[in-house]
Every structure is written in structure tokens, then in C-alpha cells.
Specification:
The complex is a heterodimer of chains A (about 425) and B (about 550). Helix content of chain A is about 55%, strand content about 10%. Chain A is built from 21 helices and 7 strands. Chain A has a 5-stranded parallel beta sheet with strand order 2-3-4-1-5, sandwiched between helices. A two-stranded antiparallel ribbon of chain A has the order 6-7. In chain A, α14 packs across α15. Chain A is flat and about 90 Å long. The N and C termini of chain A lie far apart (about 60 Å). The model of chain A has no long low-confidence stretch (mean pLDDT about 85). Chain B has about 550 residues and is an alpha/beta fold. In chain B, α15 packs across α18. The chains are: A alpha/beta (about 425), B alpha/beta (about 550).
């Protein structure tokens, strides 16, 4: 008991918070000009005024589009309890029209407690959907379609989008279509006839600023005083956390983190990782520092450090072939280069052809180079053209940091400067 | 004769199944099904004896940091989890460490590998079968619980299955009386482990399936599920154009030399002896590869050779013994470096085989034979060997020179006399040679292959008739030529000695390409005593 229990409780509590997007994005919905209030206004006005509407939310991944939509819908369901029904579709799953209509029919049946038959055909489902829309319109009930990965629906013939937006054109129906996409040009992908039925409302979600990131961290990590965790632990935890967050070096960490990827998701992963070792029972600066290094990885350098000496030789040979401006080379040319290096420098690492071929295949598994022709299995492996996937600087750095790297390799790389 | 009976048989039946009477088999089937018990929630947990943390860490040398990191990221019981991504190269202990960690933690999990589930449908159904506690037995015709092909169906079914499992877990942990049934299961969360993720890239619909798998956690929106991905390639090879929700990475690096030594010594009887053996061989072999499975296979015959001078193997060696053993092993280390990937078919007699080969090498050298003696180690019929050689020649030689190589006498006696080549033509030759190395073997149509084959076999007939005795073998080749050859061709294609390409748009016939290297072709030709070098086009 004692200190371990409140720490474990606090840990579970914090992790639960981090993994629920609704909690994370709720403080950003307060200000009047935020996307939350704009979206809420659009949907609630179409509910109250019984009209149709469509809007698209655009922004990079991890900026909270889905969370904001969930928060808005939660609020609206509380305000107008029986006047809204929600249908959620995802472009990854339902980009095929058959799947999409089946899913719409299934969700409609589930909501209105009707029997859903899996054997229903495409025509049956689409007629059902149109009939339901008409009925809902007559009953003054708004149907809200939430389409995630909107750009994937815009591939192909866009039949689903057309039928949805077309059904909204009739006077009897009341529907709102909310599309979400991480492609900023998602509305340019629409066909002419779909675009003409689409109201060009766009809400842009931008990656957060530095102050927003700080606010978010405070919001997520500070324990509330009215939870089941003992209050003196909470007070001490919060005090230590506030001290850390105010430090300058902590700001530097946040700057490094947001310089490469400033979305919320990245920050959340960072804070999730920083919880691993709560040895003293409280968060310390070391936790955040360790989390930064484990989130920001350099996989290519790690792979280079794991290579054997023979594999490094092959990589250096490939690099030299690239320098000689042979734009397509294969394993046979690499072996020729390898032999010429051995002849001119008399290295001790000269191995047989099949050994080098196996090392070549190991490099392929590590994805340090790849073949140029995909699905070109009609040629034996030693003739397929290959290209390196690491740059000169990465290779140079990898060789420098390699334990017991043969000096000859560094000399060969250095020559080209 | 019996037109009324035939419409009843709607499915084609083999003679065997039609003749076996079903009555005899049912008693046996009934006993079989009664033996397999139905699956319970306990099957979701690793069933062996419990494992403590110290045992876990000591059984994976060099993995202490990764194990602790993984357990820390999993968190305490019932804490939600952002998806984890474990990566590292082959045989670094990813799968085994993860499974043993779950054995230690006693939490329910579902494991499926993309190696055995090689299509989306099999992957989905395998996960659902495990969650729905369904076993494929003879009784239900080895079918899955639910048929699931598309991701949309999978999400709905998965949600239902997960809810039912989580509810029963919560119900079980609530009632104290049911502890007997559940045994020890910690927590209400279910973890889904998907292994060998890099193989999904080669599936047909990989552009949809990979983002779907990474986004599955967000689509489900259930905090009681945790996702763990294991892959050989690092996470940056999975980036897609429109981005994806990145999981938290954990890296399993390759073992260092000390860790390899620790691991290899663990299972040995005489550790000091093996350690002195590793002092000799580990460093040179690690320059070639650092993969554990390849090193352990390569070391076992060498260790036997190392222990040969010792009379008893249980003694720890002193300095003088070590020096003796070292000098005994020394001449064998370097040649075996070049044979590191050779796995002998008779593990106990590997050394005797090498002695025999050495004897035969000496014999051949006395007769003035060629350098690399090795025979081909597979069996092929004579006509298949000739077909292979003709395919090799057809790929190597340009088609325009066929007439000069394969004239009616079957020889290349009338080669042009070589003129002295100027510098420019030498340069041309070098460039052409580079191009031929780059391009690889060429394609040829079926007719050309058959023409060369007929020409070669007629030559072989003539030469054998000259020698005398075995003329009978070749006669049969000529008679049943066509169907035999086409059968052999398709079996050579299946073994990947000849690859079948797409059809040429102008001619409309399929083109073939030979995939064997010159080394193998020379070996095959030597076994037939066929003068291959006379027919090869050399610039």
C-alpha cells in the first residue's frame, strides 16, 4: 500500500484521459470563434430551421476533427433529444457503394429498431435509404451523415456522394452531411454534378500553436482534486508538475517535439510514453527527456548500426556505383565493384558470391535498398535493378558511429567528399 | 442406361469417396469430436505455468531494457493503451519476448500472424475465431465462426465479439465463485497482437489494408482493446501519402557479440569449452552476419570438429589444451566462412562427407579436371537436363546467331577467325558486356526453345552412337518428343528454372526466360558430358 497505490491509480487515470480524444479536445471548444462553435451553429441551425446542409472539415491528421464532431453531436443530442439520428461512415471501410449503403441501412435499422437483412441488394438498400430520409423529413427528424476520410469517397464514380447530396435536394428531406478529410483539397476532388449540390463550406483545422500545446499538457496531466485518488498525493503531484512545466528546458523539449510534428497526436504519444517509469511516484523531468528520445527515432541509423561488416561493404559499393552515375545497377555490378575494391586494396573481407547474395537479401529485408521494378519476379534476383534508400549523409554517419568499422570503408566513402 | 440416377449426383465424386461406405466411419468420428473440449476464456491466456519477472528477464539476455519498456507501456491492469509497434530485424526475439511477457502478466490476448494468415479474409476470420472461442473441428466442417471478407464486416463483427468477451471477463472477475472456471486472468482488457506485419505490403489490397489496420483502434473506439504490431521493417517504411496514426515504437536491436556469446553458451553442456571455441570463431563469423539463427547453424559442425582431439568432453580446457584445439581448428575456419549458409543434409556425417569430397577433389586434380568439382545435388531426367541447357542457351545467345551455332552438323566449327581488336572495339566490347550484365538473361519464344532442343539432342544422339553402348536412351527422346518436352517445360517452370513472362503484343505468344545461373548450367552440362562452352556466345 502506501505510495504505490495512489501512483498506480493516478497512472491509470492519466492513461484513460490520454486515450479518450473527447476529453483531450474539450478545452478548445470554449472560445466563440473556434471550429467547435462554428460547426455547432451550422448543424443546430439546420436542425431547428429544418433545412439541408453540408460542410467539410479539413486539416492534418491528429488535429481533432473527429473529436470535435463527437463533442458537437453529444451536445446536440442533449439539447434536441429526439430530433437527430446519426449515421457514421468511414472511407477506408465503405468506399465501395455496396458496402456503404449496406452500412447505412444497418445503422438506420439499428437506430429505429427495425430488422436488418444481410441479403438485401444494392437497390433495396438505396430505396430503403431514400424512403427513410423522406419519413424522417416528414417527422421533422434530421439525419446527420458523418463521412470520415471524405477523399476516399471521392474516388471512382462518387455514386454514394451523388445519391446522398441528391437526396438532400428534395424539399421533404432533412439531412446534414459532415465530411472530414486530411487532404486539404478534398473538395476539389468532387465531380461537377456532386460539387454543384455541395455547399462549399469548409472548416480548417490547424495544428496547434505553442501556447495551445502547453494548455493541452496542463489540461491532460494535472490531476483533478475531486477524484478517488488521495488529495495530498494529488496536490504534491500537481505542484511538481507545474514546476516542471514552467522550466525553460521543458520548453526546449516541447519546441524540439513540435518542430518535426506539431499535431496533438504526437504530443499525446509523447505524454503517454513519459509515463512509463513512475519510480518515485511523481513525474520528473527525466521522464519527459526519456520520452523525447524514444519517440524521436532514426530507424535508418539504427538499421545501419545493426548491419554486419559485409553488408556495409555492399552498401558502400552501391554508393560508389551511384557516384559513378550508373543510374541502374544490379547485384552483378555490385559484385564487380566489390571485386575491384578487393583487388586494389587487398582487404581481408573477400567472401564468396553466394555469401554476398545472402547479405544482399538481408539488406533488402532491412529496407536499406529496394528494387526498382515492383512485382518483377520474372528476372533472377542478381539482375533486378536496385537503388539505395539511404542518402550519403546517413551512410556516412552510420559508418562513423559503427563499432569497429573497417577504416577502408570510411576512406572509400570519404573520397567522394 | 441409367438416366434417372445421374441427375441425382449433382457434385462430382471420386471413385474413392463413392466406394467408401459412410456407416463405418461415423463411430470413429463421434469419438474424435468428444475428445476436443470446447474453448473457454482460459484459452485466451497463455496456458503454461506462471513466470516471474526475474525469470522472464534472465531467459532473454540482452533484452532487459526492451522488456521493461514494453511492460511499462502496457501499463497496469485495465489501463487503456495507444497501439504499440515493435520492430527489429529477424531472430531478435520479438515474438517470443512478447508472448512470454503475456505469460508473465496473465492477461488475455489474441495472436495472429500475417505469415499464416496470408490474405485479409483469413486474418479477419482467425481473429474472430479466437475471440468467439470457436475451434475448427470436423464437426463444423473446419469452417470459421463467421464469414468475413471485407473490412466493414470485420469491424462490426469484431466489435460484437470484443464486447461479448469483455463482458464475460468482467462478469467472471466480479463473481468470486467462478474463479475455478477462469483460473487466473488479470483484467478485463483484450490485446490483439498482429505479427509479421511487413508481409501485408505484398498483399493485393495492401494500400487499403495497412491504413485500415493502423486506424482500427480509432475506428473501434473501445478502451478495452489494445493493439500490438510486430514487424521486421521499421515504422518509416509504412508511411503513406495521406499519413496515418502512428503507433508508439519499441526497437529490438540486433544482439551484440557479447550477447550472442551469452545466448549460445546457455544451452551447452561444457560452457568453458564452448566459450574458448567462440573465442576463435565468433569474431570472423560476425563480420559476415550477426543473425543468431544463421550463426548457430554454422557453428554446430565446427564445434564438433573443434572437439575432435579431445578424449573427454566434460573437462574445462587449460591454456595448453586451448592452443592445441585452436591450431587444430585454424585451417578449417576460413573455408567454412564461405560455406556459412550450407546446411548439410546429414548433420552427423557432415565431416565425413567433406573428407570424401576432399578425396575426390584430389582424384580430379590428378586427372586434370576442372576446378569446382561439386555435382548438382538434385535429380533430373536426361531430357529435362537438355531442356534446361537449351533454355540457358536461348537466353544467353542472341537469336540472330542461332543459325551459325546450330547448323546441321550441330557444331560451331566454322567460327570466324579472331582479328586483332582495336581500342575502340575493346571499349565497345566492355560497354556491351556491362550492358549484358545489367540486362540479364533474355526472353525467347517456345519455338526457338524447341528448335535448339531438337538440335542439341540430335547432336547428342550422334555422339553417343559414336561411343557405342547407350544409344537406346536417346531413341526414346526422339519418338515421344512433343508431349514429354512440354510436360518437362511446365515442371521446370514450376521449379522456377524457367520463368514464363507475359505475351509479346506483336507476336501474341508467351515468352520464357531462363533463371538458372551459369554455374548450374555448367554443372548440368558436365553431368551430361555436353560441351556447353562451345555453344556460348562470347563477345
Amino acid at each position: 500500500m502506501g505510495a504505490a497505490n495512489p501512483a498506480a491509480e493516478a497512472l491509470i487515470f492519466l492513461r484513460r484521459r490520454i486515450c479518450s480524444p473527447k476529453f483531450v479536445f474539450s478545452p478548445f471548444s470554449d472560445s466563440p470563434h473556434s471550429n467547435f462553435s462554428k460547426l455547432k451553429f451550422i448543424i443546430s441551425s439546420s436542425v431547428t430551421e429544418a433545412c439541408n446542409n453540408s460542410v467539410v472539415l479539413l486539416g492534418p491528421r491528429g488535429c481533432g476533427k473527429m473529436a470535435v464532431v463527437d463533442l458537437v453531436l453529444e451536445d446536440l443530442l442533449k439539447e434536441y433529444p429526439d430530433m437527430i439520428s446519426v449515421i457514421k461512415l468511414d472511407g477506408l471501410l465503405h468506399s465501395d457503394d455496396n458496402c456503404a449503403l449496406k452500412e447505412i441501412a444497418r445503422q438506420l435499422c439499428a437506430e429505429h429498431e427495425l430488422l436488418f437483412s444481410k441479403m438485401a441488394s444494392f437497390d433495396d438498400n438505396s430505396q430503403f435509404m431514400i424512403a427513410m430520409l423522406k419519413e424522417c423529413g416528414l417527422a421533422h427528424k434530421t439525419v446527420i451523415f458523418v463521412l470520415d476520410e471524405f477523399d476516399l469517397f471521392a474516388q471512382g464514380k462518387q455514386r454514394l456522394l451523388y445519391s446522398l447530396l441528391d437526396a438532400m435536394q428534395s424539399v421533404a428531406s432533412q439531412a446534414v452531411v459532415v465530411g472530414m478529410s486530411c487532404r486539404l483539397d478534398a473538395d476539389q476532388l468532387l465531380e461537377k454534378r456532386v460539387r454543384s449540390r455541395f455547399s462549399h463550406r469548409k472548416l480548417l483545422f490547424l495544428p496547434p500553436s505553442k501556447e495551445d500545446l502547453h494548455r493541452l499538457l496542463k489540461h491532460v496531466l494535472l490531476l483533478p482534486t475531486d477524484s478517488s485518488i488521495p488529495s495530498d498525493y494529488v496536490a504534491e503531484f500537481n505542484e511538481k508538475l507545474v514546476n516542471i512545466l514552467a522550466e525553460e528546458r521543458f520548453n526546449q523539449i516541447i519546441d524540439t517535439l513540435s518542430n518535426c510534428d506539431s499535431t496533438f497526436n504526437h504530443l499525446l504519444r509523447f505524454s503517454a510514453v513519459s509515463h512509463i517509469y513512475l519510480e518515485t511516484g511523481f513525474l520528473s523531468f527525466q521522464n519527459f527527456k526519456a520520452a523525447l528520445s524514444s519517440i524521436q527515432r532514426q530507424p535508418k541509423l539504427e538499421s545501419l548500426k545493426d548491419c554486419s561488416v559485409l553488408e556495409l561493404y555492399i552498401l558502400v559499393c552501391m554508393r560508389r556505383l551511384e557516384v559513378k552515375e550508373q543510374d541502374s545497377y544490379n547485384f552483378n555490378s555490385v559484385m564487380k565493384e566489390y571485386k575491384s575494391i578487393h583487388d586494389s586494396f587487398q582487404t581481408s573481407d573477400y567472401y564468396a558470391w553466394n555469401i554476398c547474395l545472402r547479405a544482399f537479401e538481408h539488406l533488402l529485408e532491412r529496407q536499406l535498398f529496394s528494387f526498382v521494378d515492383h512485382r518483377g519476379h520474372s528476372q533472377p534476383i542478381e539482375f533486378r535493378p536496385a537503388k539505395l534508400l539511404i542518402s550519403y549523409h546517413e551512410l556516412y554517419q552510420g559508418l562513423k558511429s559503427y563499432r569497429s568499422c573497417p577504416a577502408i570503408l570510411q576512406k572509400l566513402i570519404d573520397r567522394e567528399g | 442406361m441409367c438416366p434417372e440416377e445421374s441427375p441425382q449426383v449433382t457434385r462430382r465424386t471420386t471413385r474413392l469417396s463413392a466406394s467408401s461406405s459412410p456407416n463405418l466411419n461415423t463411430p470413429a468420428r463421434a469419438t474424435k469430436t468428444s475428445k476436443s473440449l470446447p474453448l473457454t476464456l482460459n484459452n485466451l491466456v497463455f496456458g503454461d505455468e506462471p513466470l516471474s519477472l526475474d525469470d522472464l528477464i534472465s531467459s532473454f539476455p540482452g533484452r532487459r531494457m526492451q522488456i521493461l519498456e514494453f511492460i511499462g507501456l502496457l501499463g497496469p491492469v485495465n489501463s487503456p493503451l495507444i497501439p504499440l509497434f515493435i520492430y527489429g530485424s529477424a531472430s531478435t526475439g520479438k515474438t517470443s519476448a512478447v508472448l512470454q511477457i503475456f505469460r508473465h502478466l496473465k492477461r488475455p490476448f489474441v495472436y495472429s500472424s500475417c505469415l499464416s494468415c496470408y490474405s485479409p479474409r483469413i486474418l479477419f476470420e482467425s481473429i474472430l475465431n479466437q475471440l468467439l472461442l470457436h475451434r475448427k473441428v470436423e464437426g463444423n466442417g473446419y469452417s470459421s465462426a463467421k464469414r468475413c471478407e471485407r473490412p466493414s464486416d470485420f469491424v462490426n463483427l469484431l466489435r460484437g465479439a470484443l464486447l461479448s468477451v469483455v463482458n464475460s471477463l468482467q462478469g467472471c472477475t466480479g463473481k468470486p465463485s467462478s474463479k475455478k472456471i477462469t483460473g487466473e486472468i488479470n483484467g478485463n482488457m483484450v490485446y490483439l497482437i498482429i505479427d509479421n506485419l511487413e508481409l501485408v505490403r505484398e498483399w493485393d489490397k495492401s494500400a487499403n489494408i495497412l491504413p485500415f489496420l493502423f486506424k482500427l483502434y480509432d475506428i473501434l473506439k473501445m478502451p478495452e482493446v489494445g493493439f500490438i504490431f510486430i514487424s521486421k521493417s521499421p515504422p518509416d517504411t509504412y508511411y503513406s501519402d495521406t499519413g496515418y496514426i502512428e503507433p508508439i515504437p519499441i526497437y529490438f536491436s540486433d544482439y551484440t557479440e557479447d550477447e550472442i556469446r551469452q545466448i549460445l553458451i546457455r544451452n551447452q553442456g561444457n560452457r568453458k569449452l564452448y566459450s574458448s571455441f567462440l573465442d576463435v570463431v565468433l569474431r570472423p563469423f560476425c563480420r559476415i552476419t550477426r543473425r543468431l539463427e544463421e550463426l548457430s547453424v554454422a557453428f554446430s559442425p565446427l564445434f564438433k570438429k573443434y572437439c575432435e582431439p579431445l578424449s573427454e568432453l566434460g573437462v574445462a580446457p587449460n591454456e595448453e589444451t586451448k592452443r592445441r584445439l585452436f591450431s587444430h581448428l585454424q585451417p578449417h575456419v576460413v573455408p567454412s566462412l564461405n560455406e556459412i549458409y550450407r546446411v548439410s543434409s546429414h548433420p552427423c556425417s557432415g565431416i565425413e562427407m567433406r573428407k570424401e569430397k576432399a578425396k575426390q577433389k584430389d582424384k580430379m586434380q590428378k586427372l586434370g579436371g576442372s576446378q569446382a568439382f561439386d555435382e548438382i545435388d538434385f535429380h533430373m531426367s536426361t531430357s529435362a537436363k537438355y531442356l534446361l541447357i537449351s533454355a540457358f542457351l536461348a537466353s544467353r545467345n542472341p537469336a540472330t546467331l542461332d543459325a551459325s551455332f546450330f547448323d546441321s552438323t550441330g557444331g560451331s566449327d566454322n567460327r570466324k577467325r579472331k582479328r586483332k581488336s582495336s581500342e575502340k572495339s575493346m571499349e565497345h566490347k566492355e560497354i556491351a558486356e556491362q550492358q549484358s550484365i545489367a540486362k540479364g538473361p533474355g526472353t525467347f519464344p517456345l519455338e526457338r526453345l524447341l528448335a535448339i532442343f531438337q538440335c542439341i539432342t540430335s547432336v547428342a544422339e550422334c555422339s553417343l552412337d559414336d561411343e557405342g553402348s547407350n544409344g537406346l536412351n536417346m531413341e526414346s527422346v526422339d519418338n515421344g518428343l512433343m508431349s514429354d518436352v512440354l510436360l518437362q517445360l511446365s515442371s521446370l517452370c514450376n521449379v522456377n528454372f524457367i520463368s514464363k513472362g507475359g505475351s509479346c503484343p506483336l507476336e501474341g505468344s508467351t515468352r520464357y526466360r531462363s533463371m538458372v545461373s551459369e554455374e548450374i548450367a555448367l554443372k548440368v552440362a558436365r553431368s551430361l558430358k555436353f560441351p556447353l562452352s562451345k555453344y556460348l556466345y562470347r563477345r
